Backbone:
């Protein structure tokens, strides 16, 4: 399955945004699963909004980007990290097809959203972890918190 970003990117984002070390394959895979699930959720809500507005194309403003997510997207951008558009496009192509197309602007924005989601996950994990290397349980708590808020 196509992943939204590579292992090294996950490690770097956790370290640089939250001071956490995620260096076990199962934890990295867990973090990627969480971010990819949230990205898919955002696309599904964007699809609903586009359809409810009578459009067959999703626009950027259809994505439900909260104030907090917007903040972590800006933090991701400030880290000067990049997620290749092609990686995100391959991931999205591996999902069940949407009922709408998405605009080029959405295509260009999705890597930043994925980066912002990973920063949000890292910061949320930090809230639950007193250690530099968070446990699976602490990452799971962060996932649950993100599910409640995004």
Residues:
């Amino acid at each position: 399955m196509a992943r939204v970003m590579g292992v090294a990117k996950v490690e770097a984002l956790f370290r640089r945004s939250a001071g956490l070390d995620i260096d076990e394959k199962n934890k990295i895979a867990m973090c990627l699963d969480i971010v990819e699930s949230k990205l898919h959720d955002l696309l599904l809500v964007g699809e609903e909004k586009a359809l409810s507005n009578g459009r067959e194309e999703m626009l950027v403003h259809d994505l439900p980007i909260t104030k907090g997510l917007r903040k972590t997207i800006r933090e991701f951008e400030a880290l000067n990290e990049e997620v290749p558009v092609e990686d995100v496009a391959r991931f999205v192509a591996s999902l069940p097809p949407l009922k709408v197309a998405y605009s080029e602007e959405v295509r260009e924005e999705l890597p930043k959203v994925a980066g912002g989601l990973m920063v949000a996950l890292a910061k949320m994990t930090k809230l639950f972890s007193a250690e530099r290397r968070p446990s699976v349980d602490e990452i799971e708590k962060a996932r649950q918190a993100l599910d409640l808020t995004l």
